[in-house]
Predict the structure.
Amino acid sequence: MAEHEWDREQVQEVIRSNKDKPGALLPILHGIQDALGYVPPDSVPLIAGALNLSRAEVHGVISFYHYFRSTPPGKRTIYLCRAESCQAMGSAALESHAKDRLNIDYHETTGDGTFSLEPVYCLGNCACSPSIMIGKDVYGRVTADSFDDIIENMQVDAQ
Amino acid sequence: MTTVYISRDSGALSLGAEQVAAALRAEAAKRNIHCNLVRNGSRGMYWLEPLVEVATDRGRIAYGPVRVRDVPSLFEADFLQGGSHPLRLGPTDEIPYFKNQERLTFARVGATDPVSLEDYLTYEGYRGLRRALDMAPSAIVDEVTNSGLRGRGGAAFPTGIKWRTVLNTPSDIKYIVCNADEGDSGTFSDRMIMEGDPFVLIEGMTIAGLAVGAAQGYIYLRVEYPHAHRALTEAIEAAYRSGYLGKDILGSGKRFDLEVRLGAGAYVCGEETSLLESLEGKRGLVRFKPPLPAIEGLFGQPTVINNVISLASVPIILDKGGEYYRDYGMGRSRGTLPIQLAGNIKYPGLIEKAFGVTLREILYDYGGGSASGRPIRAVQVGGPLGAYLPESRFDTPLDYEAFSAIWAVLGHGGVVAFDDTVDMARMARYGMEFCAVESCGKCTPCRIGSTRGVEVIDKIMSGIDREKNLVLLRDLSDTLLNGSLCALGGMTPYPVLSALNHFPEDFGVSAAEKVA
């Protein structure tokens, strides 16, 4: 697999500014993912060195948490809620619509690199089910039609 | 100048509150009208969001749900003076859904600008802390103990007893940790309070620090709640600026520092020991207990770990006294519960009531029945690890013990309704699947049993050796129930077996031959 270019200096800066916090690993991983969109596997030795952890320990933490990713995401990540309240309001149908429409499954990115799709187990927007989140924006009472509208508007934005 | 309120709650935003706020600003500018737009929390009546409230001399007048295209007509109807309009709902406080609640913990949510310290103080904020600053630590703990407050995160352990243990454990360093990893589907009261009244949580944690002698607090917040993160960050900064946090709280010489830490999408980190591991920068693996976190918690130090609502209930207890709070409720469930009503329901929302209200009252008197207009067939209470209840259980009062008595859990107070199109075998399968996705992997029954559980339910649903596989499913559930360290493995049998017991026909078993 081709290595993605990433900014080593940016990662070092995140590590520097967080490494003295108690329990610094999660803040560091968040900082790197906020900056780059993912945690490059090549950054693991830098993190491990700074925190005096083994690379295996750092990798173990990255892989344990659903939110952290080791590959770059699409321009927009769509988080689709699969939890019970959303299911009671038709999220299973929305889920198949989204996969068909984007032509990808969960944990995948569209061919043009625009959208990634991730399942999420509750956005706390249960009173407006079914819900999705794109970036930091939550959308409630999402239907197949409104899903299409939302992503079409995004595609315009992304250009 | 007239004040107009539109919520910044993520539920309201998810229905277009931001666009409505922008349209209101633009329309006001076009008409050369000056009004003060405040972004409040949500009143919790989500079928009315985006809700627009106008402050008048007759109180706040509500309009909703308001869409962008309704904005010009609102101005034409002179809504800034409370004018008549098809979306006019009258005074917010008089809407029956809202009026018939008992809001103690949520008293300010929707009333104030969540990040305005000035608003918080105007609405009786920080009175609990001021009182606590004049009290001995032990007296603060007594007050909380007397209130009867039990953990609102699900386990319902008495808060005062937990605090007493931390107080009595000698150590130079102690911590207050707020479990804001509200991962249970159907629950959103933590999110609403963090977005709608973050100061009440900050105040509650500060009081907890004074009570047990802890100078550092952490809020472990789910990454799925970006709006709560923003509101908490703004409120914490404001509290520091005005001396409500930091090295000399209101000139008392007492110190309390507070920081928000983000989780990373692991349900199991809502379990207190997993959460502590995660906060220490590790995989969120469940710890063996003992030692209790109250004795050896975060970084090995004595730690109070409480849910958001538990801590947010502390300020009113300190302000008005433990007895005031204890006078609400029934049996050993004292005070109020912020009930979250969601799923297939006509009027979903947040209903804070004293313990003892029945499920039926919540579903029909408040909820108005299903959203689809079809009969409500099943209700899951207490999140993904809670039991599914049929109509015959709807008269159960919301009370920890009453729920235990029917092999169900009240948990965090989330109520999710399903109409009669639900397939309960599929919901049971989902219960196992969820456990498989979210298991931390420490215990074999949870790690492997959940995957096997999905397979067994698949066989039952396909009619393969149904009798044998039903026996196997019960046996597997028994192993999960008794062989797991934490509630994830230990309670997954609740949704699975309650679905099977109450809705056997969905598993291809006729009610007559059900094994109960």
